[in-house]
Write a structure and sequence with these properties.
The chain has 478 residues and is an alpha+beta fold. The protein is 66% helix and 12% strand. It folds into three domains: 54-231, no CATH class; 258-314; 317-477, Histidine kinase-like ATPase, C-terminal domain (Heat Shock Protein 90, 2-Layer Sandwich). The chain is built from twelve helices and eleven strands. Helix 5 (138-152) runs parallel beside helix 7 and helix 10 (323-340) runs parallel beside helix 11 (359-375). The longest helix is centred in the middle third of the chain and has 68 residues, at 190-257.
């Protein structure tokens, strides 16, 4: 029974906590909806940034705030018994609604701004005269109006408002000083004056805060946009610089590394055509010609593929591909080159493993990696092709017991910064094949890396996503 009570009490606690969390979440969601609705209303009032300029939206915002303040001041001045003042406030409210209508819905912002400025100066002068001069709130309202005009008008007109706000109060104060009887004290008591001055001060303070905060937010937003544009420009400049470096390297390849084997082919063909050679010499030159032609063809294939990749970077067609079949197709040709160097190639690729890859890109990657292994493996060496699988990826491993890679070249192995290198039989390489493999694998959601020990050999790892088709015995099921 005690155990049941204990469980029951904990169940009540859990239910209570769940209820409170649910209530708290619902309350937050409700507040979020209200905030979003208010933001949408405000956006509708001031206009969206795509259709209205920053100054126009600022004027609309200030118009909304001004209309709200005038709506508050109207009954307040009526309560104070300032009949003429509340009539002026009511007139200003109507005018402000009209100015807002012109700016927001008729999109004649400059006309609205000019009319607002003219009415403001007339109103300030009348307020100074009718509301106890320097003993009333007129000077505070001068200061507030100046902030409003500065906030939404173009910078080129700021000096006009500054001069007018300096000149007009000086004239009015001088007039009051020279002729005190010109100004009448309209307050029924000191209490009314206290309330009027205090309320005007609070309104001025609130408005200045709102204006400053609004301008600061706009500044921060423009600053972020400027920084984003600057970052984008820097990124584009960096890409342009990298593109220029690749272009320079590409021309270097065409001018030197492609020209050299072509000259060798021409020289070999010239020897065969011009001289009577022994069969053994012809065979040797034929083998050399075959090697040069295959290397040049491989270089051209890589060069054209890489150039196309730099121009559009697209054209990837992913499908379920058999690794075993791709490796065997590549080895049909590559074993001829390996046999010539007395290098053995052993493939231990499972025939049931399928990966997600581009058919042509997959063969090009395998061909480059195998060709690279043959190039840097001495006569009598060995090359092994294996697979390592996990839940999501298939790692194709191509290992050799060749000369390895010097640690000082590790950081540059997948870039066009490397210099031309020579294999164990003086086969020339420029590193373009590895750069191409890296980029092609990235397009297929794969990755390329290596492990190497100088003098002992190198293993390259080409990682591909496993196909969604699963192996079931010797059959494949979707």
């Amino acid at each position: 029974m005690t155990c049941m009570c204990y469980k029951y009490s904990h169940l009540n606690v859990d239910l209570c906590i769940t209820y409170r969390l649910s209530a708290y979440t619902n309350k937050n969601q409700h507040l979020h909806k209200i905030a979003r609705k208010l933001a949408n209303i405000w956006e509708e009032l001031v206009g969206d940034p795509a259709s209205f300029s920053l100054e126009n939206r600022a004027f609309n915002s200030i118009s909304v705030v001004t209309m709200a303040l005038l709506t508050v001041l109207l009954p307040f001045n009526m309560w104070l018994g300032l009949t003429l003042v509340w009539v002026i406030v009511a007139t200003l409210l109507v005018l402000q609604v009209f100015f807002f209508y012109l700016s927001r819905y008729k999109k004649v912002y400059h006309v609205s701004m000019l009319a607002y400025a003219i009415v403001s100066y007339i109103t300030l002068t009348a307020t100074f005269y009718l509301n106890s001069g320097s003993h009333g709130p007129a000077l505070l309202l001068f200061f507030l109006t100046f902030n409003l005009l500065i906030a939404f008008s173009p910078r080129s007109r700021h000096w006009i408002w500054a001069c007018l706000h300096l000149l007009l109060p000086v004239i009015l104060l001088t007039k009051e000083y020279l002729n005190p009887a010109w100004i009448r004290d309209n307050y029924a008591s000191a209490e009314y004056r206290y309330v009027d001055i205090l309320s005007s001060y609070l309104i001025t303070l609130t408005c200045i805060y709102l204006i400053t905060n609004y301008l600061r937010n706009n500044y921060e937003r423009e600053k972020r946009n400027a920084e984003e544009r600057a970052d984008k420009i820097d990124s584009q400049n960096l890409k342009l610089e990298q593109s220029n470096q690749k272009k320079d390297k590409l021309f270097s390849i065409i001018a030197h590394d492609l020209q050299s084997p072509l000259n060798s082919i021409i020289t070999t063909l010239h020897l065969i055509a011009e001289y009577d050679l022994e069969e053994e010499e012809k065979k040797m030159l034929g083998d050399e010609l075959l090697t040069l032609t295959k290397n040049t063809s491989s270089l051209l294939t890589n060069l054209l593929t890489w150039s196309k990749l730099q121009m559009d970077g697209k054209g990837v067609r992913l499908s379920a591909e058999s690794v075993h079949e791709a490796v065997e197709r590549v080895l049909t040709i590559q074993r001829l080159l390996a046999d010539k160097k007395s290098v053995s190639i052993t493939s231990r690729v499972d025939a049931d493993v399928y990966i997600t890859a581009d058919h042509n890109m997959l063969e090009l990657i395998i061909r480059n990696l195998v060709n690279n292994a043959i190039k840097f493996t001495p006569s009598g060496g060995q090359i092994a092709i294996d697979l390592r699988l996990n839940e999501e990826y298939c790692h194709l491993m191509i290992s050799d017991n060749g000369i390895g890679i010097d640690p000082s070249h590790h950081d540059e192995i997948f870039s066009l910064k490397t210099q031309s290198t020579f294999g164990t039989n003086n086969e020339k390489g420029i590193g373009l094949g590895l750069v191409l493999c890296k980029e092609l694998l990235a397009l297929q959601n794969g990755e390329l890396w290596f492990e190497s020990t100088p003098g002992e050999g190198t293993t390259f790892f080409a990682s591909f996503p496993l196909s969604q088709m699963k192996v079931t015995g010797n059959t494949l099921s979707a």
